[in-house]
Amino acid sequence: MCSHSCGKIKIANSIKYLGIIVDRNLKWREQIEVVVKRIRRLIYIFLEIRNYMSLKYLYAVYYGLVQSLLQYSVTSWGAAYSTSLRCVEVAQKLIIKIILRKPRDFPTELVFHNFRVPKFNELFTKYAILQVLREPMYHNFIVENRTRNRYVFLQARRNSSFAQHHYTYLGEKYFNELPVEIRRIEDHSKMIKEIKKLFKEKTISR
After folding, report:
1. pLDDT at 3 over 70
2. In angstroms, rounded to a whole number, what is the distance separating the alpha carbons of residues 90 and 175?
3. With contact defined as beta carbons under 8 Å apart, do 29 and 81 qualify?
């Protein structure tokens, strides 16, 4: 039981936990705003260092400063509504355009063709799949669909919008869309390595 010295529990609209802002409605807008602000603060840095660094080293700085922000705990907030995530995608493309010295209206597909890094949605897809596969409770849910000769997650129906935007549901869905030769790999560690390799090759071959 609580003694009289216990403080009152305060109701808050959001709370910061392990660097992630969790809002009471789980819309992730505050977390997304923080990520975007942190990325935009890097604009000046890239405007300066692009004059002194080769593209090889700019890649390294990008991965260290920008992608680290995009992928940190992305499975918690990266499945927010697309309207909320659009500003993240815009900020990512802006940094890349600065690195490449391209105008703001430079086509998006050419941005990622010229600077081969994962798009934000690709980062979320990758980490949602890997997170699901790393959870022991899911290991027994990968079953063989013998009529179609493939391994899939048998997904339970999710009726709520919240459940449909959760990484577990999306991770299962994205896993089922992987090439059959990857889904049929029995060795768990090897499967994870091949999934990482697939996403890396997708980025390089863009």
Report:
1. no
2. 27
3. no
pTM: 0.87
Whole-angstrom Cα distance, residue 28 to residue 125? 17
Residues paired with 15 in a beta bridge: 22
CB 173: neighbour CB atoms within 10 A?
A: 16
Confidence band of 6 (pLDDT split at 50, 70, 90): confident
Sequence-distant (6+) residues with CB within 8 A of 164 are 158, 170
Per-residue pLDDT reduced to its tens digit, 157-173: 777 777 788 888 899 89
Quote the strand ranges of the chain, DSSP E: 14-17, 20-23, 142-145, 150-153
Listed as own residue / partner, the contacts of 150-154 with beta carbons closer than 8 Å and 24 or more positions apart are 150/180, 150/183, 150/184, 151/180, 151/183, 151/184, 152/176, 152/183
Smallest Cα–Cα separation from 178: which of 131, 137, 125?
A: 125
Backbone angles phi, psi at 144, to 5 degrees: -90, 125
Q: State the pLDDT at residue 2.
A: 60
- What's the token pair of residue 65? 């400063």
Write the pLDDT tens digit of every residue in 55-112: 999 999 999 999 999 999 999 999 999 999 999 999 999 999 999 999 999 998 899 9
Q: What six digits make up the tokens of 31?
A: 């977390």
Distances (CA, A) of 9 to 12, 30, 100: 9, 22, 50
Structure tokens at 17: 């936990």
Please report, to the nearest 10 degrees, the dihedral formed by the alpha carbons of residues 64, 91, 130, 117 taken in order.
-60
